[in-house]
Amino acid sequence: MTRLLEAAEDLADIEAYHRIKADIAAGREELIPSPLADRIIDGESPLRVYREFRGLTQAALAAASGVTRVQIAEIEAGRKSGSVETVRKLAQALDVTLDDLTG
User: Fold this and answer.
1) Rounded to 10 degrees, what is the CA torsion of 65, 66, 69, 74?
2) CA-to-CA distance for 88 and 101, rounded, in angstroms?
3) Is domain 32-103 classified as CATH 1.10.10.10?
4) Residue 17 banded pLDDT, cuts 50, 70, 90
5) Higher pLDDT residue, 7 or 102?
6) CA pair distance 71, 30, nearest whole angstrom
7) What does the CA dihedral 55, 58, 60, 61 come to, rounded to 10 degrees?
């Protein structure tokens, strides 16, 4: 029975791999370089990482999102978390999901 469960898990992993690969090919999924993922894993602000990945300054992100530069700086520094609405605006401006910014 254990071998059957292991085979089922392997099949599920293979299917997930193929779904992700298809999403990437169709442009529904974006890959970020591993050094950027490592920065997020190491505890750096996802907002800062994605902002820099997009090549934006805090001022440019503020203009694109309607969120003040001070709010962005506070969130990136970890002094504030931002309301759901604020983070939603930032995520939309960065073309990422809310989960990408909130972990």
Assistant:
1) -80
2) 9
3) no
4) low
5) 102
6) 26
7) 90
3-state class of 99 per DSSP? helix
Q: Which residue has the higher pLDDT, 5 or 78?
A: 78
C-alpha to C-alpha distance for 32 and 87, rounded to whole angstroms: 20
Nearest to 68 by CA among 53, 52, 50, 90: 90
| All structural domains of the chain with their residue ranges | 1-31, 32-103
Radius of gyration of the chain (CA): 18
Residue 2's pLDDT is 84
pLDDT greater than 70 at residue 28: no
Residue 7: pLDDT over 70: yes
* Contact by Cβ (8 Å): 66, 87: no
